[in-house]
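FIELD: query
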Amino acid sequence: MSETFYDTFTKILEEELEPALGCTEPIAIAYCASMMRSTLGEMPEHIDIRTSGNIIKNVKAVTVPNSGGMKGIEVAAILGVLGGRADLVLEVLSCITKEQIDEAKVLMAAGFASVELATGVPSLYIEIAGRTACHECTCIVSGEHTNITYLEKDGKVMVDRKASCTAASSEHRTDRSGMSVSRIIDYAKNVPVEDIAPTIDRQIEYNTAIAREGLSRKYGVSVGRTLLTHYDASDVRIRARAMAAAGSDARMSGCSLPVIINSGSGNQGLTVSLPVIEYAKEYHKSHEELVRALALSNLIAIHQKRYIGPLSAFCGAVNAATGAAAGICFLLGGSADEISQTITDVLANVGGIVCDGAKPSCAAKISSALEAAILSYEMTKEGNCFKDGEGLVGKDIEQTIESFGRVGREGMKETDVEILKIMLDK
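FIELD: result
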């Protein structure tokens, strides 16, 4: 592999593995609102919020962190206006006070914020406009959770990338077009470990902490705790699923601990990392071996998601679980062919689990996706594999990944629309 690809993959890990407080969609709303408020320069009298359907879907049922247990788009936006710290990016709500929570409740009751569905926009789209008697300001985040594509105050445009917002990630993210499974494996084997250890170590620390918190007491429907209570907790396959599910249990229910995300998602960050960490403990792998395996698992998940996009009706836990399975295979000495086949087997099994928004049941989907992922690894070890031409399995691993990405990006568009219609009817 050329030095260019080493640098590229290292930068991708640094860009993608960011800390985030709570579910990233409400946090993105809070970030947009905070940017609008700081640009406006004073407290608005009213805010108007327009978002894509996928944002509505992913904010509706999750508890906003540091909100006193409240849920919803208006809550996230109002807290962003009242006390958001845009300089903290995806940890924008980490400094919210009790007084600001109380004030948010008053503003909610007074109709301070209005919400409207935006159509004909990218799947990740947030537009927040605030006004006072003398001033007005509009901020748009699009394409990625913190990517400001438009910012205007009193008719003066400060940022305008709206024309390219459907491909906003290419504006300020490292190019992913050269990614492939073979190059990722080569990178994970040979990159100087000191170049990636700080990024990966933070993922290990943060994600392990929230998983332990999720196991310590009841959050959501306690999927992680249920797995350890009713299944064999001495089995690494159960612990791997339980840790990832417990982290999701906690963050979907408003836990204030940060998570290191993957592909813009905390749930995906938990799913792609915690099972690999558990397997490393079970098999007494060194720190370097774990770091390399996590580099691979993260990059495999990112590679898949670049075909799908940030938000769709295709459950991202599947991509993350696929990355985890590949990471486990790599950690335990699997060959390049075995890693590729493991990825194929996961996608051929559970590719297409529907995303009906961020909520407590995400923890159960994580558990199910990881069960399939671990099964796929064990099938591969036995030489039992799905073959070219069986469903969406292609002639090689890249064709298979691209085919499932196409289903998530194009094939499930109408599914996404119907899901949103059903949710809004409720």
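FIELD: remark
The two ends are 52 Å apart (CA to CA).
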